[in-house]
Every structure is written in C-alpha cells, then in structure tokens.
Amino acid sequence: MSTEKLSVWLIEDHANYRDTVAMALQARAEIASLLDFSEAESALKRLKSVPSARPDVILIDLGLPGLSGLQAIPKLKDLLPTVNIVVLTVFDDKPKVFEAIASGASGYLLKSSTPGEIVNAVVQVHQGGSPLTPQVARYVLSAFSEVRIQASATKLTQREQEILSYLADGLIKKQVAQKLDISAHTVDYHVRKIYEKLQVNTLSGAISKAVREGLV
C-alpha cells in the first residue's frame, strides 16, 4: 500500500454522520489532512479563494442543501480536474449512479458502508481504483455487460473489454495484471488504447461513455 499522505475533503450536511466519517478518516495514518464542509458552495469557495487548497480526494453527499452533489461534481472537476471524487450517499438508483459517474465521480458508496470501508475507498481511489458499493457495482457491471460499441473506430478488443471490466469492478491496475497474468506495463498500454478509442482520459469517463453508447 502506498505511504503517500493524502489530503481529503468531506462534504456532508448531516453533522453527526460527518463527524463519524471524519473521525474514521483522521484515525488513518494515510490521511495527512482533512477539511469538512456542510455544503458544496463552501468547498467551491475555498477552492477559488485559496489556490493552494488542493485535496487529493473529495467525499461528497448527493443530497446536499443548496447546490446538490450532482451539480457540484462537474464544478469541482472544472476547478480541479485531477481530483478523485467519491460519492457517499443514500441514493442507489441507477440514474443518479450513472449521472454521478458521467459527471466525473471515480467511486460511489452508500452510507450503509462502514467507516472502515469508506476510509479504504479513499485510499483505493487514490491508488487508481474505482470503489463501488456492491449494489452499485452490479448496476455498472450489468450495464457494461450489455455494451456493444458498433463503430469500428471505437470497438474495444476482447482484452480491452476484460481490463475495463476488472477496473470497473474496483481492481487497481496491478491487480488486473495479476488476474490476467500480464505485466503492469501491458495493462497501462491497453488502458491508454481504451481511452484513445473512447476519447476520454479517466476510467469513470470510459465506463460512462461505453454504457451510454452501447446499451441495447
């Protein structure tokens, strides 16, 4: 596991739940700093007013007062394109799942997740994974299994589909390499080809575009 220290922001309006998650995050050695906000507007204001305030990972609720989490995600990504955003919410319906992923979220957890699972997701997403609650993973994977990209210019090979499927399931590249008995360098090569074919530059973007273009 990486020893890099992470800066994390938590955007959650329910004080008790926010405090519980914050305590779990602060207890982990990997988390160097934590800021929490009760609304998305405050987090956006800080990003704009303090250029050095650059979190590695943002945990965000969807049902926020004022600007919703779904509305805030693309705004956060506009200001900080490289940030990893993990949705933390009670909503598990498919439209919200796919809208969040399409907007730039790299992970999607339900609030039924344990504090330990949430902290592990923060570390996982920073290492290149895409943490998903099992119910949400089923939505994504069932949709992905129906993907049929028709245009030859964007058609994925069987190996590319295998790799994207494993990544969508939350595995990091090193784990995919072990699963397929290939080198991490080969996985990186295939991921670059996937991004090139689908004209995206993130894993969440690749999954979202494949689902949007290939649903039967």
Q: Could you characterize the architecture of this molecule?
A:
With 216 residues, the protein is an alpha/beta fold. The protein is 52% helix and 12% strand. A five-stranded parallel β-sheet has the order 2-1-3-4-5, with helices on both faces. α3 packs parallel to α4 and α7 packs across α9. The N and C termini lie far apart (39 Å).
How far do the termini sit from each other?
Answer: 39 Å
Q: How many strands in all?
A: 5
Instruction: Indicate the overall shape.
Output: globular
Structural class: alpha/beta
Give the overall pLDDT as a whole number: 84
SSE arrangement, N to C = EHEHEHEHEHHHHHH
Strand order of the biggest β-sheet: 2-1-3-4-5
Share in β-strands? 5-15%
Q: Describe the biggest sheet? A: 5 strands, parallel
Poorly predicted runs of 5 or more residues: 147-153
Q: Helix amount, in percent?
A: 40-55%
Q: Enumerate how many helices there are, as a single number.
A: 10
Tell me the Rg in angstroms.
17 Å
